[in-house]
Amino acid sequence: MFIQFKTKFMIFITICSIFLFLIPNTNSAFAASGWQYVGNSYIELNGTYVGRSVPVNSHGGNFKATFTGYPGQLSVTLYEDDPNGNPDDLVEKARTVSGNGGELIWKNIDAVKDGDNNIAELYIRVTPKNTSNAKGKITVKFYD
Q1: Are 40 and 138 in contact (CB under 8 A)?
Q2: Among 50, 41, 49, which Cα is nearest to 122's?
Q3: Within the chain, where are the H helices?
Q4: Cα-based torsion angle of the residue sequence 126, 132, 133, 137 in order, rounded to the nearest 10 degrees
């Protein structure tokens, strides 16, 4: 009886091992897509307020932001943050995106990398398209 249990246990372990081997690693699949998660920001809207995200680091190339939590359309402008009182650089003028499930991709942003670290510190400014009922919290995730 013990041998029968041991055989069934070994078969179970083998099947589980094969199953786990065949499941794709989502982190590897995500990295293979070319995007690395670099941070997130929560933007609170209260009427006509223009929200600003926290800056995140980009190594250039393409940059992506995904939006969730706001039911309307948003106007989004991308900036490069310059410290020490220097004016921030406009990377791209406003584009429209859905505030819940929307995604924006900016291509070839190498020109805005600066400083000793050769990194772009990027942030977005968000304005709701319909300001009459523009209240809520937007979650923005950034990828480089």
Answers
A1: no
A2: 41
A3: 2-22, 26-32
A4: 20
Its sign, for the CA torsion 83, 85, 86, 90, is positive
3-state secondary structure (DSSP) of residue 60: coil
Which segments within 24-69 are labelled E, that is strand? 37-46, 51-52, 56-58, 63-68
DSSP 53: P
- pTM for the model stands at 0.74
- The strand pairing partners of 57, in sequence order, are 121
CA distances from 124 to 11, 23, 90, 108, 135 (A): 54, 36, 10, 17, 18
What is the share, in percent, of the chain residues with pLDDT greater than 90? 50
Q: How far is Cα of residue 47 from the mean position of the Cα atoms in its chain?
A: 25
Across 2-16, 23-37, 99-113, the highest mean pLDDT is recorded for: 99-113
Q: What is the Cα Rg of the chain in Å?
A: 22
Strand, coil or helix: 49: coil
State the Cα–Cα distance between residues 138 and 96, nearest whole angstrom.
15
pLDDT on residue 15: 54
DSSP structural state of residue 23: S
